[in-house]
């Protein structure tokens, strides 16, 4: 299928007719509403529904995607098909064009309200690198790592939209060798490049979501920057895991890429050995050929490849619910840092500078071990789309601000 | 101050005029609304406000306490003073009595919507016992334990009201000595007796809540049962902490005891050595003389003493926000298992049966290592109140149901 939109679109930018990601936007002085990105414009779905052009059961005039996300896969597909029709059939142009707004004229807001936030640890390169640094005398991977997708709950209340300033956190940390812990702004502020998915349709308590039901519950994917304070994290994490080293901020991209837009990006994931337990088996290949790019102050720092993830999104969801914990609309699941076997594919400064011992040199010659005040970190991603197209994720960006006294 | 209510109250039961805890209730066929417990009755605050007897800015007709919790300390105090006046001045009796409903005629619902849920680990006896069992060759306490109140984020979406059935969770676990992990219902299902507090007034991002501001943000206290699957937890927890071993269910009591009702219960907490960093210092004593009682199937299993907690609630809150993570209305913070130096004071089966090696014998002769299907666990607590009164916490109870296939 080849479809061409009557909207003028730069195909290389990845916001063409095969993508159609959802977001929440506002123009100055107006209420937030739901829109779809096409090229460098936003299609105002609230106005479209008021004009009778798309079906709406009060999904689109609200300030979040949650009402639409709960509606389920038939509603998602119907709207996607209808928007595709409206943007490709030139006979609609006269009625639709008034509802296309330049992205530069709007503010993009947090696309959905987060219920619970779970962060996985599903990239073997990242987990092994972290193991080598923090547990040098043990196996890089803990014994459970290839048996289940390790994860923990993060703080839902500090999931922020792209562009939110990141205030360097205060906290308690102890440098190895110091007899006493000290208090002050984090000295090892880091980013983590991740890919997340958000649940739309809830599930029942007491019953898990099998891998085969992934698309019935999951609305779409976002980019995630799970900001981390490595010194705070290292000191606090035993025995119950990360807490304040993570909970100050997590940024998500403004656009949610529908699951349907990523069908052409699905690839066979790495071989899993040992074979996972039956509840984690997945008949369909659910690796995703997403190419991430991390920039620090506009300079390329790394290019992680999401196809290298050991555990896939349906496996993550099946695991997170196997104990009967129900899904809620807005539950966000992040992949964990996306890294690769090469240094230029590592997804955080902890790995890129090997815990500060080998500074990263950016193309313009500046060097970093961890992030400095004023640094801007931007993560982008593209994937192959249907009919040879490209699917872009909206960027997730944030600038480090000095600590507040 | 001695105050006497015209409502007939059994003072020993702890729901007298010095307590006045808040909850959410519904009568069959009616909408949920906010009420206050007095004796064995509920004062219907929604009806009281409709009758012009209490001030209400739409706090009380909603199905949760959140709208009232966000109103802040002056509103909490004004309503408490007014309810005290109405229930003690006999001249109001004729107008108020129609709005007193027997507790036995109503259903008590979850009192508030949980934003984020944080679980601490602040009892030294519990932490040391767990350390002895799980890390027998190391110090019972990790090096950070007396420097900061260790905590992790739990799952807000599975915080349930007292009485909710607890379905035994499925999961992946490996018995020590087994070469392979296996899948099935948890074989080591446990409870944890805890005390939680809930935030009412939000705080700003980037700024912590000092220990001195605790009462400006915190609405009240509840009892918490942090149900735990020890076999799932033990296998999954390295390196990022508990996840599915905890996230299937957490129960909270139906009544929220206002902070103001616990002033007479405040005691000096255990000496902290080493002295905590300045951000964790607390000028006022914030130990709480709460006496917990755990029953299994109506038989007393243990009597933990909350006054033995090493870290106090204001210290927990200051720590959880020191990195600039803002508070949201409905944020729930649980203490961690309350245990004591004696076996009869331990707050979970893990400790009471020493990880299953020493079965607990209940007064009627039944023995337990961990919980069996059909077991009902009920936690209650009392504290000294003003003028020699007693302050009761509403019970938190739950019955273990068989796993769902």
UniProtKB/TrEMBL annotation, chains A, B:
Record-given protein name: fumarylacetoacetase
Q: In which pathway does it act?
A: Amino-acid degradation; L-phenylalanine degradation; acetoacetate and fumarate from L-phenylalanine: step 6/6
Q: Where is each Fumarylacetoacetase N-terminal domain found?
A: 18-109
> SUPFAM superfamilies given for it?
FAH, Fumarylacetoacetate hydrolase, FAH, N-terminal domain
- All residue ranges annotated as the Fumarylacetoacetase-like C-terminal domain in the record: 119-388
What are the entry keywords? Calcium, Hydrolase, Magnesium, Metal-binding, Phenylalanine catabolism, Tyrosine catabolism
Q: Which residues form a coiled coil?
A: none
Instruction: Please name the InterPro entries in this protein's record.
Output: Fumarylacetoacetase, Fumarylacetoacetase-like_C, Fumarylacetoacetase_C_sf, Fumarylacetoacetase_N, Fumarylacetoacetase_N_sf
Gene name, per UniProt, is fahA
Which cofactor(s) does the record list?
Mg(2+); Ca(2+)
- The domain of life for this entry's organism is Bacteria
> Which GO MF term does the entry hold, naming one?
fumarylacetoacetase activity
Which EC number applies? 3.7.1.2
